[in-house]
Amino acid sequence: MSVPSGGTGFFKLSGSGNDFLALTDSAGDAPAPTPEQIRAWCRRGVSLGADGLFLLRRPAGDAGGGERVVMEYWNADGLPADLCLNGTRCAAQLAFHLGWARDRVRIATAAGEVAARRLDDTRIAVALPAPAEPPREVILEVEARAWTGWAITVGVPHLVLVWPESLRQAPVVPLGRPLRFHPAFAPAGTNVSFVRFPGSDRMEIRTYERGVEDETLSCGTGVLAGAAVGLHLGQVARSGGVPLTVLTQGGFELAVTGDPAGSGGSWSLAGDARVVAEGGLFAAAELEPPPPAWT
Predict the structure, then answer these.
(1) CB-side exposure of 111: number of CA atoms within 13 Å?
(2) d(Cα 127, Cα 41) in Å, to the nearest integer?
(3) Does 54 score more than 70 pLDDT?
(4) Which fold has domain 136-264?
(5) What is the mean pLDDT of residues 188-198?
(6) H or E stretch covering 112
(7) Nearest partner of 18 among 268, 246, 251, 202, judged by Cα
(8) C-alpha to C-alpha distance for 35 and 176, rounded to whole angstroms
(9) How many Cα atoms are found within 13 Å in the side-chain-facing hemisphere of 71?
């Protein structure tokens, strides 16, 4: 694991506004960080802060050349998640940055292998198989009101609400939080995305992320979940190579190509992914602040 003098070595990355801490393991045998460390390091305000953390391993015996890396991912709450696509795009960017791969790399995740390729200095595309099951309509009650949404798993569980109005005023946290913890999704819970389709080739999205327990600036698996729902409802055109352009809360646009219901059953997610910093995490980064002593 990369360890600069005086601290645990880390990289900071951003995938269309979804930010991550990354540890690296060039030998393939470094221990994973503890849940307590992950929660501390990802805590904003008193530590470095991030939506999640991943450990990127180079398989033992790999001499380089762009073949394969292994990614272990945890949300900011210290719990593992099978897949984070913005994190996976960032993991590919980091592999390229470190010289572990050239322009293409296969990334082993808990949800299966993802193929990634570099589009340019700040854009990475990942390709993966379509979900095994189509979106499933669900009706959920929150505070005596029924909400209709679509449940689908894209590596991790998602609930998609098709929002009829501008997302500017969408209740992402007030409604997203109780839906995230709704008994229908117990015990693991779900991510909750609010989506709007201004046209057959455009989607807008805001997401409440499980494990971060807040809205994030982007969610890659949420983008694919929303795209799958749009296709299922006929609000997204099945137009071959024409991408679905997706606007995220962070202001970045992501592109979805492919048709998960068509030939091959695969799709691609492309967009911004960049390495923004490298440094050392010191002992102070693990200190938990006391609660305020209000009287």
Answers:
(1) 22
(2) 30
(3) yes
(4) Diaminopimelate Epimerase; Chain A, domain 1 (3.10.310)
(5) 97
(6) strand 112-120
(7) 251
(8) 25
(9) 36
Q: Strand, coil or helix: what is 280?
A: strand
Instruction: Give the residue among 143, 145, 87, 88 at the shortest CA–CA distance from 115.
Output: 88
Task: Read off the pLDDT of each residue in 243-256 and give the average, rounded to a whole number.
Answer: 96
Any alpha helices (H) in the chain, and if so which ranges? Answer: 35-42, 85-98, 172-180, 220-233
Q: Give me the pLDDT at residue 57, please.
A: 97
204 touches 160 (CB < 8 A): no
Identify the CATH class of 8-127+275-282: alpha beta
The C-alpha angle with vertex 219 and arms to 215 and 220, in degrees rounded to 5, equals: 175
Would you name the residues annotated as active-site residues? 84, 219
Encoded tokens for 147: 């909400």
Q: Which has the closest alpha carbon to 42: 88, 10, 85, 5?
A: 10
DSSP string covering 11-38, please?
A: EEEEETTEEEEEEEESSS-PPPPPHHHH
Residues shown for the chain = 295
Domain boundaries, the chain: 8-127+275-282, 136-264
Q: Is the per-residue pLDDT at 184 higher than 80?
A: yes
CA distances for 278 relative to 24, 119, 124, 181, angstroms: 11, 23, 20, 35
According to the model, what pLDDT value does residue 245 have? 96
What are φ and ψ of residue 25, in 5° steps?
Answer: -140, 95
Angle, in degrees to the nearest 10, between helices 85-98 and 220-233:
130
Dihedrals phi, psi of 231, to nearest 5 degrees? -65, -45
